Amino acid sequence: FEELVTQDYTAARAVLANCRRIIPHARFTFAKVWVHSAHFELRRGQLQAARQIFGAAIGSAPKDKIFKSYIQLELQLGEIDRCRTLYEKYVTWAPHK
Fold it and tell me: What's the half-sphere exposure (Cβ side, CA atoms, 13 Å) at 67?
């Protein structure tokens, strides 16, 4: 709502940050919140912020969807070395997949 209707990007960023803050990631998490937050930053032209969000997600609450979304982003950007690094972390985290 904040982003699309009111176009208050500061408020939208604050809402997403608050969502990430209140979710108890040690017990469960929602990958969608992390991915949506990163994509929001990308829409705002903040690639570094999106990478930081994905990195924080992998560090605190790794999930398949987070890894795959981050790898897809880096692939679209042509960052093959980053993709390799992410795949290595993904395989280390989930060797059965």
Answer: 17
